[in-house]
Design a protein that fits this description.
Elements (H helix, E strand, L loop, with lengths): L2 H11 L9 H24 L2 H22 L2 E5 L5 E5 L1
Antiparallel strand pairs: 1-2
Helix pairs in contact: 1-3, 2-3
Amino acid sequence: MNVFRDQEKFMRACDQTVDSFNEDQYKLYINLIEEEFKELKEAIAAGNLVEQLDALEDILVVTIGAIHSAGRYCFRRSSAGVESHAHH
């Protein structure tokens, strides 16, 4: 399982940019991070662990979307089969 690759596949399927900076798309993901963080704080205040975990998972996904939208990282498999990243 590779959450960066999974998110990249999802974004490509939705015709989103994953390998170069897309300002509008990046802003969308930043807004989604803020929304999910708000939901996390509400779930913490309510003592709802299930909703906390859901918000944390969503934060992870939209953060990875923001990284791809920024075009900052390119993930590749090394000869040893270990995930690495290179700065553009």
